[in-house]
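Lab notebook: predicted structure, single chain.

Context: the supervisor wants predicted structures on file for every construct in the current expression panel, including those that have not yet been purified. This is the next one on the list. No modifications to the sequence; it matches the entry in the shared construct table.
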Amino acid sequence: MTTPSLVTWVDRTRQWWFTPPGCCNGIVHLNPYGGDAVALAVELANDPPTSVPDLECRCTAAGLVLGRPMRDADLGTVEEFLRRWTAVVDAATPEVRAERLNALLAAATAHPRLTDHDGVWHLHFRDDDLPPSGIVAAVMAAGTALHLVGRGMGRLGRCAEDDCGRIYADTSRGGRQRYCSPACANRDAVRRHRARAAARG
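Prediction complete. Output recorded below exactly as produced.
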């Protein structure tokens, strides 16, 4: 029997973890690398939702099954969570980042526990019957923690392009991402090239 490649294994794991269950009122499968959940946190922090339908649509697009409609209070709760999550990104040291994220985890998640309520054994990182905003917070907090411990505590940051400052989650192989997008990287490269040319006279 041949062993699947690492890429195949990651793809299979991602598909299994993010297959919505048939009877759960919220997402229960978390990518063990935290990639999808932390990507949603980055997206919402960079472009905050402007309304309940906007937030619902973006959560659904990311694969979160919320189970019931969001209310106005959910939008406010998610906005407050994102404010605290952004403070995790902006932490000056890994120790401060861990302290801030631990506080988020304590507030948003529950002790992990096994459940087979949908016929497949998996982990819950949250209490049952949370409102939609609680599900969003639990998934993003746990996903961020998994991203950082799986890839490195420095794998969150702000774009190095002077006029940007958007947040990114570094998923690069070497862990050297400094920009939120190739466009910002290119703009900064052009700026630095022009600065060097000007310095040479």
